Amino acid sequence: MSKDHLPATPAIRVLKDKQVDFVPRPYKYEERGGTEVAARELGVDEHLTVKTLVMEDEKKAPFIVLMHGDREVSTKELARVLGVKTVQPCEPAAANRHTGYIVGGTSPFGTKKALPVYVEETILRLPVIYINAGRKGLLVEMTPAELVRILQATPVRVAR
């Protein structure tokens, strides 16, 4: 799949508009397979895949957390870092409303609403990442520096 024949997702449009150097990485999607299946299908280390998690605080204020595919978010630590009482994942319907994407195809790029983005800081040290491009079964390969440039993501240490 070339850049010229990609699906016109909001994420792909943003990446092209911002002149991001990326490589489309389509793969055979499996329902509930997550980053483990994506990494296996693409033949890459799951640690290099990045999950886009739509979360909210106790006031239902939404935000995005980008996490290694093989790690979880410590919600207790994230709440402490953000200075809120609690954080939790959004319900799928709420995540869809906030981002415009279907869960399983959520990208941090081109979201319906501008949401604060937090990124596990160790992701920023990777040579390359694989992140969702707005459709189930489609990741893009890019550098973490581009992710920070486009999203203005705030680094956090919340992996476990």
Walk me through what this model shows:
This protein is α/β, with parallel strands linked by helices. The protein has one domain (3-156): Alpha-Beta Complex (YbaK protein). The protein has helices at residues 10-17, 34-42, 75-82, 92-99, 144-151, and strands spanning 23-26, 49-57, 62-68, 87-89, 117-120, 129-135, 138-142, 154-156. Strands 1, 2, 3, 4, 5, 6, 7 and 8 form an 8-stranded mixed β-sheet that branches.
What is the H-and-E element order?
Answer: HEHEEHEHEEEHE
Q: For the record, what CATH class applies? A: Alpha Beta
Number of helices: 5
Report the uncertain regions. none
The CATH level-2 architecture is identified as: Alpha-Beta Complex
Average pLDDT rating: 94
Tally of distinct domains: 1
Radius of gyration: 15 Å
Query: CATH superfamily name?
Result: YbaK/aminoacyl-tRNA synthetase-associated domain
Terminal CA distance: 35 Å
| Major sheet summary line | 8 strands, mixed
- Number of E-state strands: 8
Shape: globular
Which structural class fits the helix and strand makeup? alpha/beta
The portion of residues assigned to helices is 25-40%
Examine the coordinates and then state which fold CATH places here, giving the name of the CATH topology. YbaK protein
Taken as a percent bin, the fraction of beta residues is: 25-35%
